[in-house]
Amino acid sequence: MNFDWLAGEAGDIGNFFAWHAALSVIPVVAALVMALPIGWLVKQSGVLRPALLGIAGLLYTIPSLALFVLLPLVLGTQILDPLNVVVALTLYTLALLVRTVCDGLDAVSADVLQAANAMGYRRFSRFFRVELPLAVPVIGAGLRVAVVSNVSIVSIAALIGTPQLGALFTEGLELHFLTPILTGIILCVALAVSLDGLVIFLTRQLTRWQPRS
Amino acid sequence: MISWITNPQHWTGSDAIPLLIGQHLAYSAVALAIAVLIGFPIGLYVGHTRRGVVMVAGTANALRALPSLGLIVLLVILFGPVFASDLAFLIPCVIVLVLLAVPPIMTNTYAGIAAVDPAAVDAARGMGYSSLGVLLHVELPCALPLIFSGLRSATLQVISTATIAAYVSLGGLGRLIIDGLAQRDYFEMVAGAVLVGALTLVVDLLIALASRFTLSRGLMR
């Protein structure tokens, strides 16, 4: 490690880190907001359900680099626009979370739903006050996978030139210089671990009703 | 984009489309084979004995957090002086692809075996199956659906990430994306992206078919 170089570049690296965090987190929040109603609809869709989940699975098979390249065609953006990365990751996360939300809602037992009905909950309030809180552990587990893999996928966007920690990898290869590469890897892992920890913390806060072992 | 793909110039020479597809599949197949050799036995062992569950889950999570691009670049620089010619690029890529593919194969094999109905396992024991017999004739066939889904997600990730190999001057369909970007030839990039997407879809379909033919009919009910 060359610490003089690190000190000199600290400003840029901090900037990359902030971009990387934003590019990883914004898609997860956006996808979660969309996945809740979509997951609920898919759960209700009965016969169509395997087909709908299959389409979500297909979305996940498109390689990230390919999606970064193809989105400008659809969105009319420039190839270097960070929006491509945000939209691509939102699509991936959405594909993952729709299935998770669906599974989470499935895990709510029929007895609980009947009890809620008997207590006078209407559909809407039953969803937000009974089903969703009970689905939080499963959705939280899906979110953990999503944030951690997003951090890794974001760094690939460096190949098409969006500013984030991945830029340290391309720079390191061009200069044949290990310090930026190691710094990038360490910061990526640190970001992934802290976002993972944040999701665990939030899941715990939202599931205080669960008995702690 | 269509005219780019159908242009006969792009079907011959060192950047011919069939050659790039072949390279892409070759890197992916080698990496997957190695990953299965590593991940499958570990998953079987952990699932059967329930020893080392925490370690398997922890390793899988830690590997998922590693940025694959950073790892490839790091290994290329470290191995550059050690190996001659293309091996200096090939070995780092294969190592990273293996690291990507091992966690889903390992955790799904473990989870599949661990989720087998204990009553079926007890019945097999009662009928006099040895420990190995239980594993091979009862647990493994029952765990196949989950094992296949692990293999499937490993394959998709490997094919997807193999596009990055082009960045460190290897072949594969990523070549078109990286070269297209360098030459500002957007149609070449799009052609590369579409071909990679199509390749993953075809391979995904083949695995789905393979799983349909190998699964025990008793599990389909």
UniProtKB/TrEMBL annotation, chain A:
Similarity-based family: Belongs to the binding-protein-dependent transport system permease family.
Membrane found in the keyword field: yes
Localization per record: Cell membrane
Membrane topology per record: Multi-pass membrane protein
Coiled coil: none
Acyltransferase as UniProt keyword: no
Protein name, per record: ABC transporter permease
Entry-linked CDD domains: TM_PBP2 (cd06261)
PANTHER family in the cross-refs: GLYCINE BETAINE/L-PROLINE TRANSPORT SYSTEM PERMEASE PROTEIN PROW, OSMOPROTECTANT IMPORT PERMEASE PROTEIN OSMW
Keyword terms, alphabetized: Membrane, Transmembrane, Transmembrane helix, Transport
Matches recorded under InterPro entries: ABC_transp_perm/SBD (IPR051204), MetI-like (IPR000515), MetI-like_sf (IPR035906)
One GO-annotated biological process of the protein: transmembrane transport
Originating species: Acidisoma cellulosilyticum
Family annotation (SUPFAM superfamilies): MetI-like (SSF161098)
Segments traversing the membrane: 16-40, 52-73, 79-98, 132-161, 181-203
One cellular-component annotation, GO: plasma membrane
Pfam families assigned: BPD_transp_1
Domain ABC transmembrane type-1 stretches: 17-204
PROSITE patterns reported for this sequence: ABC_TM1 (PS50928)
Tree of life domain: Bacteria
TrEMBL record, chain B:
GO cellular component, one term: plasma membrane
Subcellular localization, as worded in the UniProt entry: Cell membrane
Gene Ontology annotations of biological process type: glycine betaine transport; transmembrane transport
Record-linked Gene3D superfamilies: MetI-like
Entry's transmembrane regions: 25-46, 66-83, 89-116, 128-148, 154-178, 190-211
Pfam families: BPD_transp_1
Membrane-protein topology: Multi-pass membrane protein
Protein name listed in UniProt: ABC transporter permease subunit
Organism: Acidisoma cellulosilyticum
